[in-house]
Amino acid sequence: MVLNFVPAHTNKVGVSISKKIGKSVIRNLVKRRIYEQFATYIPRLKGNHNYVVVAREPIREATFEDIGSTIGYLLRKAGHLDV
Q1: Total domains in the fold of the chain
Q2: CA gap 36, 19 in Å, rounded
Q3: What is the pLDDT of residue 16?
Q4: Residue 59 belongs to what domain range?
Q5: In terms of CB atoms within 10 Å, which end of the chain has fewer, N or C?
Q6: What local confidence, expressed as pLDDT, does residue 82 receive?
Q7: How confident is the model at residue 83 (pLDDT cuts 50, 70, 90)?
Q8: CATH number where 42 lies
Q9: Residues of 33-42 as b/e, b for ≥16 C-beta within 10 angstroms?
Q10: All residues at 6 or more sequence positions from 69 whose CB lies less than 8 Å from its CB, including other chains
Q11: What predicted TM-score, i.e. pTM, was given to this entire model?
């Protein structure tokens, strides 16, 4: 996964998934999982930003917990997460 962000007035999250990931059923499942896991981190975010999560191909085999830990790692790496 790749996390892009820009400063904004409120926190917003968008997800980008290529058709290489799979058919629409798989892509929508991955989107729902990403949104759900990202929502758990929103109360702990520093400042307001617009976030775009770009899913890469290995996400098809990732579990729900793997997605959450990856999002947490990316937010900590960017310095946007209160510990």
Answers
A1: 1
A2: 21
A3: 96
A4: 2-78
A5: C
A6: 81
A7: low
A8: 3.30.230.10
A9: bbeebbeebe
A10: none
A11: 0.92
